[in-house]
Amino acid sequence: MKIVVLEGSPNKHGSSNLLADQFIRGAEEAGHTVEIIDAAHADLHPCTGCIYCGYEGPCVQKDDMEQFRKQILNADMMVFVTPLYYYGMSAQLKILVDRFCAINSSINRKHMKSALLAAAWNADDWTFESLESHYRTLVRYLNLDDQGVVLGYGCGTVSMTKHSSYPDKAYELGRSV
Among 107, 118, 128, which Cα is nearest to 173's? Predict the structure, then answer.
């Protein structure tokens, strides 16, 4: 299976990307091919809502999205990776997701698999409610087949994350898809 990992952290060596690294290790050990889209460090502009794409066509903006479009549509699975910023996905990942506007129908027809990996400083039981709700909405809207989530509660630093059970959970999720 071809998997595309959509990383949304501006911190390349942060907690959410640590979870992504472990997921990738597990997925590759299971025989899958993995590509990373680093949305936080890409030349990627926000959707303007101009609808030039007609919801399924080329975008008027000339940036990295054309390459990302190919990577996403050639994949069998998308993994959303984000730190929790103000109880939602990072702005960097949200920009990429908003640009799905031009590939909605193609994603929907593929019935791709998906997963969510996230890390947060907060460890309250309600910490991930908004992010989980948004992810579930994307799964439904884009006709994705959810394979699981790893939500790293209390992962405010890389050290905290490394010493938690969440990297192992991400690895196991990667091995299981």
Answer: 118
